[in-house]
Amino acid sequence: MPTLINSKTAYATVGNESLSGTLVTFRFFSAKEDARTIFDYFADGAFYSFVGSNATGYERFAAAGWFQRDRSGVQMKEVYAEITLVFDRQNVQGLVPTSDSAVRYNPVYSLGITMDERPIEQNPRFKCFWSYNLYELVPLGGSASAVPAWAATDTNPNAIHAGYLWSRTPPPSQDPAKEYIPVQPATKPSQDSYLIPRPSVTSVIYYKSRSVGSSDIINGGKLKAPPETFIYPATQTCWLCEPSGVAMASDDLMAVTTTYVYAEEGWDTDIYELASS
Prior knowledge:
- This protein folds into three domains: 2-92; 96-117 and 196-262, no CATH class; 133-184, no CATH class.
- The chain is 8% helix and 42% strand.
- It has four helices and 17 strands.
- The strands form four sheets. Strands 1, 2, 3, 4, 5, 6, 7 and 8 form an eight-stranded antiparallel β-sheet that branches.
- The longest helix has 9 residues, at 32-40.
- The radius of gyration is 32 Å and the shape is elongated.
């Protein structure tokens, strides 16, 4: 039976529809000059609820899925062209009705982890002697005392200790009769920073309602935990919502990609607003 695709006529092959896992494949014949027009009708990654209409206008191949261009193609035969169209139906499973009677496709969540650089002083195990030399103020030409016991546990390089000073470089003396001399050198003098994991959860949701699909956009820059947090706590103040993009996957389907960035210590609620929904 002839099928109209992008106003061009294609003919279904015998047993033209096949299913393998979540992939559904259609094969058509067409005139050679029409093959490119038919193939270019389908955008990579876009969702198509049907492939074409037959002569009576009946929509064929309902809920075909998301077009996979790299799996599809056109093969030129001697007198005709064979067109292979592959769609992935994985994301059309489990439709969930929304409060406004629209249809939303179940989201796909992924967890990513990058490494953030932080000042070494913010490391919870930090000790001053890692990065700072300990200096003692003594009379000119004097010698240093024994290293004080508190030097092994001190975590604040700005702490005040009479006669002593943590510094990366030799500090100047305010007393011309005295000078700072090194008591203990830094054990990690070149270690200015350290890395911590920064998890983020990305969701991709397909909506058939622009109003529903826009809800995550409104929460951009606000604190909101994703529905799926994997191994991390779902504490709202630990997740910053960052909408990454919105695209029309088809004429009636909107794809919303949202990234939620996790901070173990929590985001500053004086700066970031809590999302209300």
